C-alpha cells in the first residue's frame, strides 16, 4: 500500500533499487537493517542516493554515534517512517 508521504516513497524506491529489496516489504514501520536486511555497505549507497536526490547531507555518522552511545533509539533514524521525517527535517533546515 502506497504511503501519502512523497519522501517515504522516494526513499523506499531508492532502497528497492539499491539494495534489491522487494518494494512491498518497505513499509513506514520497517526497520532498515533488522526488517529489510540491508547491510551497512548497502545503507551507505542508499544514503548517498538520498543525499543526491534530496540535495542534503544525511549525518549517518552522527546518527550511528547517538544510537551506539545510547543517546537515541535506533528506531529514531533507522525505521522507515522516522527516516523519512529526518530527511524532511534536513530538507527544511537547508531551505531554512
Automatic annotation (TrEMBL):
UniProt organism field: Sabulicella glaciei
Protein's pathway: Glycolipid biosynthesis; KDO(2)-lipid A biosynthesis
Domain Carrier span(s) in chain numbering: 5-91
UniProt keyword list: Fatty acid biosynthesis, Fatty acid metabolism, Lipid biosynthesis, Lipid metabolism, Phosphopantetheine, Phosphoprotein
Pfam families cross-referenced by the UniProt entry: PP-binding
Membrane-spanning intervals of the chain: none
The protein, known as: Acyl carrier protein AcpXL
NCBIfam families in the cross-refs: PRK06508.1
Amino acid at each position: 500500500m502506497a504511503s501519502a508521504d512523497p519522501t517515504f516513497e522516494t526513499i523506499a524506491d531508492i532502497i528497492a533499487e539499491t539494495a534489491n529489496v522487494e518494494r512491498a516489504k518497505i513499509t513506514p514501520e520497517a526497520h532498515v537493517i533488522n526488517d529489510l536486511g540491508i547491510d551497512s555497505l548497502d545503507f551507505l549507497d542508499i544514503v548517498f542516493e538520498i543525499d543526491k536526490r534530496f540535495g542534503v547531507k544525511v549525518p549517518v555518522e552522527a546518527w550511528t554515534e547517538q544510537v551506539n552511545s545510547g543517546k537515541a533509539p535506533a528506531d529514531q533514524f533507522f525505521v522507515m517512517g522516522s527516516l523519512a521525517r529526518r530527511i524532511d527535517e534536513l530538507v527544511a533546515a537547508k531551505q531554512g
